[in-house]
């Protein structure tokens, strides 16, 4: 092979390499554009579902017929807790939705109100606490809802006794704190904590506590309860079992 043939072969190889590189670059560009387009589509759909879900939760009686039909599709999707994945979306058969009517909007509005009451308890009672401390306050409210000694809804538990100047179960409901409406990042975080607790994600860090107070006070009522643990600036308690009462045990050591 002479020098000219060698140079010609090198040019052919270089040309083929450049063409291959151009093809690869073109394919990558198309892939990136498709991914960007798909991501934008998903974002648009996500925003649409968020908007519809907000309408579904806020109030259904002001929606038009077309929007209401879309909301039925939302109702076919349910959110469930999973110990490994955290939250799992499942799709129900539309056959289950034959009884869907406007009462479901009222139910959704009631759920929203209950979560708001829970978020208010978290905000006014523990907005300076960490996430675990805020979850603990939310879990005390939920533990009371499940306890026969207290009302059976979140709002009724939180605002029990609020009509009196003394005797309210949660101080913020009768000490004037509600004059200042919740706001800012602290309120948003309180809402997220309340939603997390309401959906039942995570274990009960309070160990079934139904009472708490700050470390700055030592109220008389804690003598008849079992101390479960301290989280942040709060100490948590639960009712004693019959065996504990008979044995005179009212407190446990901190975790």
At CATH level 2, the architecture of the largest domain is Orthogonal Bundle
**Helix content class:** 40-55%
The whole-number mean of residue pLDDT values reads 76
Which class do the helix and strand fractions yield? Answer: mainly alpha
The low-confidence runs, each spanning 5 or more residues with pLDDT under 50, are 59-74, 251-255
Strand order of the largest sheet: 3-5-4
State the end-to-end CA separation: 85 Å
Q: How many distinct beta strands? A: 5
Order of helices and strands: HHEEHHHHEEEH
> What is the CATH superfamily label of the largest domain?
Cell wall hydrolase SleB, domain 1
Strand residue percentage: 5-15%
Outline, from the CA principal axes? Answer: elongated
How would you characterize the largest beta sheet?
A: 3 strands, antiparallel
Here the CATH topology of the largest domain equals: Arc Repressor Mutant, subunit A
């Amino acid at each position: 092979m002479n020098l000219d043939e060698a140079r010609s072969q090198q040019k052919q190889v270089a040309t083929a390499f450049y063409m291959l590189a151009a093809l690869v670059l073109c394919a990558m560009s198309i892939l990136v554009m498709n991914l960007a387009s798909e991501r934008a589509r998903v974002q648009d759909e996500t925003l649409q579902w968020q908007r519809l879900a907000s309408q579904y939760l806020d109030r259904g009686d002001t929606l038009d017929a077309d929007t209401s039909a879309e909301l039925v599709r939302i109702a076919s999707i349910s959110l469930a807790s999973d110990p490994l994945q955290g939250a799992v979306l499942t799709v129900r058969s539309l056959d289950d939705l034959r009884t869907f009517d406007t009462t479901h909007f009222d139910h959704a509005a009631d759920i929203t109100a209950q979560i708001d009451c829970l978020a208010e308890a978290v905000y006014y009672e523990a907005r300076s606490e960490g996430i675990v401390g805020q979850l603990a306050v939310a879990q005390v409210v939920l533990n009371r809802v499940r306890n026969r000694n207290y009302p059976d809804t979140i709002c009724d538990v939180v605002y029990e006794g609020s009509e009196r100047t003394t005797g309210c179960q949660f101080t913020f409901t009768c000490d004037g704190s509600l004059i200042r409406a919740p706001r800012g990042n602290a309120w948003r975080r309180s809402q997220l904590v309340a939603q997390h607790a309401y959906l039942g994600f995570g274990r009960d860090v309070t160990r079934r506590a139904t009472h708490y107070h700050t470390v700055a006070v030592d109220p008389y009522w804690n003598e008849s309860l079992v101390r479960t643990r301290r989280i942040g600036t709060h100490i948590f308690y639960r009712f004693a079992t019959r065996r504990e009462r008979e044995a005179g045990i009212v407190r446990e050591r901190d975790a």
